[in-house]
Amino acid sequence: xxxxxxxxxxxxxxxxxxxxxxxxxxxxxxxxxxxxxxxxxxxxxxxxxxxxxxxxxxxxxxxxxxxxxxxxxxxxxxxxxxxxxxxxxxxxxxxxxxxxxxxxxxxxxxxxxxxxxxxxxxxxxxxxxxxxxxxxxxxxxxxxxxxxxxxxxxxxxxxx
Length: 160
Known about the structure:
CATH architecture: 2-Layer Sandwich
CATH superfamily: 7,8-Dihydro-6-hydroxymethylpterin-pyrophosphokinase HPPK
Helix content: 25-40%
Number of helices: 4
Oligomer: single chain
CATH topology: Alpha-Beta Plaits
Number of domains: 1
Distance between the termini: 31 Å
Largest sheet: 6 strands, antiparallel
CATH class: Alpha Beta
Number of strands: 10
Shape: globular
Radius of gyration: 14 Å
Order of helices and strands: EHEEEHEEEHEEHE
């Protein structure tokens, strides 16, 4: 079983409900189990500022799916929940990203693991550190060291 960290984000149509719904969908994936999920974190948008704030979380999965099969499954969950990409780094009903897949390094046109934006996103690193503080991001460093190097902060509160 591969250990996989998934980043979740939403800023439309009751984002907390959208994340909870996505987690329920993750629990139904074949050959996959949800081990744990972080708390929900509020963050300012990283992209255009004329959109609502986000709610973010990170889940740890164990799966027998390949990275590409998991990506397809995540995209299907996004479609099921009604995601329509309107603009780069724009508002979204649900966003599910493969952050880490074991210690794999994958660089394909449609899939990059580890996710290339991990070192720049406190809304990924802080929830990741909550559930797996000793995690090493291949070719980037430890979660703790990446948090220490952050230049920008998007988090402003934690959802209960």
